[in-house]
Design brief:
This protein is an alpha/beta fold and 371 residues long. It has two domains: 2-136 and 262-289, Response regulator (Rossmann fold), CATH 3.40.50; 139-260 and 298-364, Rossmann fold. It contains eleven helices and 15 strands. The chain has helices at residues 2-18, 45-59, 77-87, 101-110, 139-152, 167-181, 200-212, 226-235, 263-274, 309-323, 350-354, and strands at residues 30-35, 63-68, 92-95, 115-119, 131-136, 157-162, 188-193, 217-221, 238-243, 254-260, 286-289, 298-300, 333-334, 340-342, 363-364. It has a seven-stranded mixed β-sheet, sandwiched between helices. Helix 6 (167-181) links the parallel strand 6 (157-162) and strand 7 (188-193).
């Protein structure tokens, strides 16, 4: 109980610091609340969506943005944070971390007059009129970055620092290797799981272990990305970014990144809610943007001059195919135990991709118990 009280004091302090004073009585401003697992300085997941919230404020200056940072996924911290935002007048809540899903759903069920959006989850049943999830087709730019990595590697060993063994992480590891193997058929991805979204010392240990195993290109699925980029840069090897453009952090080895560009999507979601169209919209369930529909918020960053013209052409060709409806997971795809998961010529559904629980042939490394 004491820990909860301490957290509430911290959370309200952060809230006051991150959001301006509430609008005066009678002001018809729309108040929007964001809940973050970190802040705008992680060079990664939270910074990207924080910047998206700032872009939303610029695009819709009559809105009032509240932010609560450093909210844990464990316990009832996320639920308390969302309730605090509602008490301050928020009628739209963006719960932006994977582990907030259950809390976000409970808050939405308890407050039918508040629209709650969860970032990256799958909506629970029964479907609520005031709840939805949003995300991008992650495998698209990750597959493209895999092409860049496959062209860059000299050893054929690519390193991947991963967080938890969940479908989104399996999705990225597999897409990265499948992209690399279009250029380097014998490429392998060595993976190390950290058991955390952001633990710099553990990330550094994982990155160094991968380098010792021969990896000469490093990438990751971590919320904070600086440590892995730094490890690659100091070792004189190449790096592939994630979540946020890290080119300035690793100016000598950074090749490209799969990064978030949230502004257009956030503005469209808020506009849809404001105009009373949410219940019948694509956001009142599990929205997934993609290249084929022209609305993927997960995109490829600008490529480094280190990337050759030939590799750029291969990346562009992959994008053309994906815009036409092709998927990086179009079969045949075999897992690393030799089981055929996707037959030749077939493409798994979005639901099947979002439930991916296996690693493909060529991924090396043990998988810990599920998160």
């Amino acid at each position: 109980m004491l820990r909860q009280r301490v957290w509430l004091v911290i959370a309200m302090t952060v809230l006051a610091a991150c959001g301006s004073a509430p609008p005066p009585t009678g002001n018809r401003q729309l108040t929007i609340g964001f809940v973050f697992i970190a802040d705008d300085h992680d060079l990664g997941y939270s910074q990207a969506i924080w910047e998206g919230s700032e872009a939303l404020a610029r695009a819709m200056p009559d809105t009032h943005i509240l932010r609560v940072a450093h909210v844990p996924e464990t316990g009832d911290a996320a639920e308390q944070a969302m309730e605090s935002l509602i008490r301050r007048g928020a009628t739209i809540i963006f719960a932006t971390s994977y582990g907030y899903l259950d809390a976000a759903f409970r808050v939405a069920k308890r407050h039918p007059d508040v629209t709650v959006l969860h970032q990256g989850g799958i909506e629970k049943k029964p479907q609520l009129d005031n709840f939805g999830t949003y995300w991008g087709t992650m495998e698209e730019p990750v597959y493209q970055s895999g092409i860049v990595a496959g062209a860059a590697t000299k050893t054929g060993v690519l390193g991947f620092v991963a967080a938890f063994p969940i479908p989104a992480v399996f999705n990225n590891i597999n897409a990265f290797l499948l992209g690399a193997r279009t250029v380097r058929p014998d490429a392998t991805v060595h993976v190390r799981f950290t058991g955390s979204w952001c633990n710099p010392p553990v990330q550094e240990q994982a990155a160094l272990a991968l380098i010792r195993e021969g990896a000469d290109v490093l990438t990751q699925h971590q919320d904070c990305t600086r440590t892995v980029l730094d490890a690659a840069e100091h070792a004189g090897i190449r790096s592939i970014g994630y979540h946020e453009d890290g080119s300035q952090e690793a100016p000598h080895g950074y090749l490209v990144g799969a990064v978030w560009s949230w502004s257009d999507l956030l503005v469209d979601i808020v506009r849809t809610i404001r105009e009373g169209r949410f219940v019948t919209s694509r956001y009142n369930h599990d929205f997934r943007g993609g290249l084929a529909t022209g609305d993927n918020p997960f995109v490829l960053s600008e490529m480094s001059p280190l990337v050759s013209a030939r590799t750029r052409a291969l990346v562009a060709g992959a994008e053309t195919r994906m815009r036409a409806g092709w998927s990086p997971f179009t079969g045949p795809i075999t897992d690393r135990d030799g089981h055929l998961r996707v037959p030749a010529g077939q493409t798994p559904t979005r639901a099947e991709i979002d439930a991916m629980n296996y690693l493909v042939t060529g991924v090396v490394g043990s998988v810990p118990a599920s998160h």
